[in-house]
């Protein structure tokens, strides 16, 4: 019973990691220990335009699933349960800079979906504003509708939803963001390098790019491809492109290649592996970033532009 | 309750409530928006808002506390004067909570009485359980000690830490007075306090708000809107029911609260004893199980003590009709005579008074035959006007939370007073809910959502349910007057004596009061 439960639950989380993340796109992906053939199928079903990271097939895929985003027992449940860890991880990253209670930060949430993280960030006392973007109109409609259930979030400027890709987002240079979040998005991007590059342009010097994703390993292949798609048929076959999953080390290698990023451990770079334990919830498990869901964060150098 | 069932209930709830909204007049004035509206300023509700207002993460929340009663600290007599008949025994855990939120230092210390041991004996078999500070511990600790392998170390540690107190007797109004003082102090600390205390204000109705007028305005259709006797309206992000056993909040949320009546009344009184003990002396609480229900004598300062006598409604009526000196004799008899004689004394057909019954039966009833503890005091008189009774019930809400609703204290559960847990459980609820809201705020949650509230329900419901179940079983086991259950319990008393957790339960209980 319990083990069936466990199997039933885990893929939902992983499926959701697909559901929340709309922008999809093209890639980087240095060699990895697990993937000898770097994404041979990755571009076959998508019609990405060169200017935008938006994958139109994925966009329509999410429309159908938009309705139960905020249902406490719906398919987004595990994402909701993961949300507190996102804040804990962000706090960990910001801590060395000293959390000045009077300093209010500007957040940009990319691939905001129904607004799970964006709403929560907008409620934080140290947040001035949250800009949340997603290319899928249906999920943004869900997000905007749900925002109305909390009058606080309707205060002018506190939470702004925009239907756009990161490439299409216009940000004046004095309005860059202190924190840019990218939760369960990067694994749907076929060409992560240009995608991440356009994110960095929006990041304030000294600011943080913070995200979460799944490592490309036999474990994640088993849970997301084999169990969720082939056995349980909880998600249509082909929902995940396992070859697009990114290893923490690959993320870090990419960051090291960007001169404006600080990647020294615990100062400019953090990683945290998390595991869903049925009956308990999400839990940090040291070292699990190598084989499952993980958070990463990288800091833009103070002097960078 | 399974999550599916909870969900069904949530689905079922709004339409019914919406109906009640449309049938009761739609309020004219715009509601004021609050993060937390707490209905009920009893000890539980007051401790909850003090806890929220004491913590830096929840201090900024806009809170309204509404009670139909006055909310000013009551005047307390000087020590040696009279004591309220509504006392509770606070477990060390409850006292720790009060200390942590700065309330304990506001308590009128000379009016409280810690006790260090408890004697419990069975009126039918005479078998005894004694426990003292070595058992330490309240009920929850005691239950935790049931975990195999844990028991010895845990009690040992407490002993070595010098935690001598089984529980502390405190008048409810001493506690509420301290809470109100602390709340005043917290309000004064900040120029613009976000805590609004509404005394002498009754909540007349609670209903869901209106659908939003247009796409850009807030949608209150899932927010509880309260209307008060003062004509104000409040919209609550989170509505907390600390509104006692008949909780209007629980009714609004349509949360069932199944249970049963014990067909017993709790007779309470403040008594004067023959012995004047000074503050430094170790004190003992006493409880005797009679077939009609347990009778407990809990120490108050000096020569005062608090009585909780759970008995049949007929006996309760008979007791309340007695003259003060006859009542005093009846209480002495309740601890000293055989159950059959006590029944006779209180039966409607009895032609003897408690005084005469006691004077000729007591010499013929050696303490060894009843299990009477050797140090048991003699009750000398009844404090005038302190005799009262209330019906005993077990009720347990099927869940403590709903969308934008949470229940704490008697609104969530009522329990038999034999274990003295009622208020302690309520304070533990309040502490847990406040903690959960701190967590919610620190993680950007909507504190009225199930994402935030679920943690409170899962932390408290099962624990309270276990306590309610054990207390209920103790009541049932000990109210058997004869037969196998009695034999079993006297033969098994050795076992019971060793069962630390049962002892802990009764002692945590010691306090005898709800
Ligand atoms: C008659 C009686 C006698 C008791 N005697 C004892 C005793 O001797 N010893 C003991 O330990 N325990 C006793 N108990 C139990 C004990 O009082 C409770 O466990 C404890 O008070 C629970 O605290 P609470 O704050 O949850 O609820 P309560 O103390 O019941 O507080 C609820 C509050 O809500 C307010 N309220 C309710 N409805 C509304 C409304 N519509 N609008 C505004 N305000 C509202 C009430 O005015 C009240 O102040 C007794 C209970 C009762 C009913």
Automatic annotation (TrEMBL), chain A:
Pathway: Cofactor biosynthesis; ubiquinone biosynthesis. Its cofactor is Mg(2+). SUPFAM superfamilies: S-adenosyl-L-methionine-dependent methyltransferases. Keywords: Magnesium, Membrane, Metal-binding, Methyltransferase, Mitochondrion, Mitochondrion inner membrane, S-adenosyl-L-methionine, Transferase, Ubiquinone biosynthesis. It comes from the Eukaryota. S-adenosyl-L-methionine binds at residues 86, 111, 134, 183. It is found in: Mitochondrion inner membrane. The keyword Magnesium applies. Residues 43-53 have a biased composition (Polar residues). It is an enzyme of class 2 (transferase). Residues 25-40 have a biased composition (Low complexity). GO terms for cellular component: extrinsic component of mitochondrial inner membrane. InterPro entries: SAM-dependent_MTases_sf, UbiG_MeTrfase. Pfam families: Methyltransf_23 (PF13489). Residues 25-55 are annotated as: Disordered. Its EC number is 2.1.1.64, 2.1.1.-, 2.1.1.114. O-methyltransferase required for two non-consecutive steps during ubiquinone biosynthesis. Catalyzes the 2 O-methylation of 3,4-dihydroxy-5-(all-trans-polyprenyl)benzoic acid into 4-hydroxy-3-methoxy-5-(all-trans-polyprenyl)benzoic acid. Also catalyzes the last step of ubiquinone biosynthesis by mediating methylation of 3-demethylubiquinone into ubiquinone. Also able to mediate the methylation of 3-demethylubiquinol into ubiquinol. Belongs to the class I-like SAM-binding methyltransferase superfamily. UbiG/COQ3 family. Component of a multi-subunit COQ enzyme complex, composed of at least COQ3, COQ4, COQ5, COQ6, COQ7 and COQ9. This is Ubiquinone biosynthesis O-methyltransferase, mitochondrial. It comes from Recurvomyces mirabilis.
Automatic annotation (TrEMBL), chain B:
Component of a multi-subunit COQ enzyme complex, composed of at least COQ3, COQ4, COQ5, COQ6, COQ7 and COQ9. Its EC number is 1.14.15.45, 1.14.15.46. It is a peripheral membrane protein. The keyword Oxidoreductase applies. The keyword Oxidoreductase applies. PROSITE patterns: UBIH (PS01304). InterPro entries: FAD-bd, FAD/NAD-bd_sf, Ubi_Hdrlase_CS, UbiH/COQ6, UbiH/COQ6_monooxygenase, UbQ_mOase_COQ6. This is Ubiquinone biosynthesis monooxygenase COQ6, mitochondrial. Its main location: mitochondrion. Transmembrane segments: none annotated. Residues 34-336, 387-466 form the FAD-binding domain. Residues 351-374 are annotated as: Disordered. It is found in: Mitochondrion inner membrane. Keywords: FAD, Flavoprotein, Membrane, Mitochondrion, Mitochondrion inner membrane, Monooxygenase, Oxidoreductase, Ubiquinone, Ubiquinone biosynthesis. One of its GO terms (molecular function) is FAD binding. One of its GO terms (cellular component) is extrinsic component of mitochondrial inner membrane. Its cofactor is FAD. Belongs to the UbiH/COQ6 family. It comes from the Eukaryota. It catalyses: a 4-hydroxy-3-(all-trans-polyprenyl)benzoate + 2 reduced [2Fe-2S]-[ferredoxin] + O2 + 2 H(+) = a 3,4-dihydroxy-5-(all-trans-polyprenyl)benzoate + 2 oxidized [2Fe-2S]-[ferredoxin] + H2O; a 2-methoxy-6-(all-trans-polyprenyl)phenol + 2 reduced [2Fe-2S]-[ferredoxin] + O2 + 2 H(+) = a 2-methoxy-6-(all-trans-polyprenyl)benzene-1,4-diol + 2 oxidized [2Fe-2S]-[ferredoxin] + H2O. It is an enzyme of class 1 (oxidoreductase).
